[in-house]
Design goal:
Blueprint: H1 2-14, H2 19-55, H3 62-67, E1 71-72, E2 80-81, H4 84-115, H5 118-131, H6 136-154, H7 166-190, H8 194-202, H9 207-218, H10 220-236, H11 239-244, H12 262-273, H13 279-309
Antiparallel strand pairs: 1-2
Helix pairs in contact: 2-13, 4-7, 4-10, 5-7, 6-7, 7-10, 8-9, 10-13, 12-13
Length: 313
């Protein structure tokens, strides 16, 4: 009996992988290749069309595109393509969103990680993550029909608040990315070893000091990664800013004015106002390529920071 069992074990270990395992491995390889090839295809199409935008019109140069302060793309060959107005709107909305999201997200993460009882944490965190699944078009109408009227009712007597404005869009974009920052930051804080907390308590530290002086610094890389991920989402948000901020390019630092972001312009142009193959149509890809580069730089910076300051326990 011992000999038979030993022989069977030897046969199984020496045998080649079954065809089912090979099929699964081949399927997984195809899935990985499709994702990589799709990304490469998107990048090639994006930058090919963007380069055509500069080749087909001698009056449009890369320097003028990046530094020009007037964006009037619907004038045909006579249009002006200075993208700074769109970049200004994008960055202004993003800055407002981060001002809203970072304090709320970190405070929520600290509460869930350090203060909330187990029952509250188990019910509150899934509820918070459900907020991340709300369609952005719903949030856009929420900004337009609720946040903007509230702003006009509260501060409208002091400052002029446009129906479409950067502030309402930025506030709701900030609300949208709170779950991202809170969830990832809470995971990073929860990963800090309990021994560090107990050592601080043993030295007489209060709960607040443990959270601010021990837990958060120890989870810094994860917290920063969550913030930068939220920043990338805010820059690339489309429907909220298209509905709440408006479609009027405006180089302004006043958050109560109407403006237009890069993604909102893409939405406007693809609605039929730009004939396919026209210079205006190709400007969509130029704006998209610039947006791609901006988000790529943010992601690369986030990766470097996480690797540089990661704490391993």
């Amino acid at each position: 009996m011992a000999t038979e069992v030993s022989g069977r074990g030897t046969d199984l270990s020496a045998g080649s992988p079954r065809w089912g395992e090979r099929a699964i491995l081949a399927f997984l390889l195809v899935c990985a290749a499709v994702s990589v090839l799709t990304t490469i295809g998107i990048v090639l199409v994006l930058f090919t069309e963007a380069s055509g935008f500069f080749r087909n019109n001698e009056s449009v140069t890369l320097t003028g595109f990046l530094t020009g302060t007037t964006w009037q793309p619907f004038g045909g060959a006579q249009g002006e393509y200075g993208v700074l107005e769109l970049v200004n709107g994008t960055l202004l909305v993003t800055a407002i969103a981060m001002i809203v999201a970072v304090p709320l997200g970190l405070a929520t993460a600290a509460y869930l990680s350090e203060y909330a009882p187990g029952r509250v944490r188990r019910s509150l965190k899934p509820t918070l993550e459900v907020l991340a699944g709300v369609p952005t078009v719903v949030l856009g109408y929420f900004a337009l029909t609720f946040i903007t009227p509230v702003l006009r009712a509260t501060i409208g007597e002091i400052w002029t608040v446009s129906i479409f404005n950067h502030l309402s869009g930025g506030i709701v974009v900030g609300i949208m990315i709170v779950p991202t920052i809170a969830s990832l930051s809470e995971d990073a804080m929860s990963a800090v070893p309990r021994a560090l907390r107990e050592g601080a308590y043993g030295l007489g530290a209060t709960k607040r000091r443990v959270v601010t002086r021990i837990v958060m610094p120890s989870a810094l890389s994860g917290i920063v990664a969550s913030i930068i991920l939220g920043l990338g989402r805010a820059i690339g948000e489309t429907m909220i800013v298209a509905l709440a901020v408006g479609n009027l390019p405006n180089l302004t630092f006043n958050p109560l004015d109407q403006g237009q972001t890069m993604t909102a312009y893409i939405v406007q142009a693809v609605q039929g106002e730009a004939p396919r193959g026209s210079l205006t149509y190709q400007s969509i890809f130029a704006v998209g390529a610039l947006l791609f580069v901006m988000t790529l730089v943010i992601n690369v910076a986030a990766t470097w920071f996480v690797r540089r300051f990661r704490e391993e326990y």
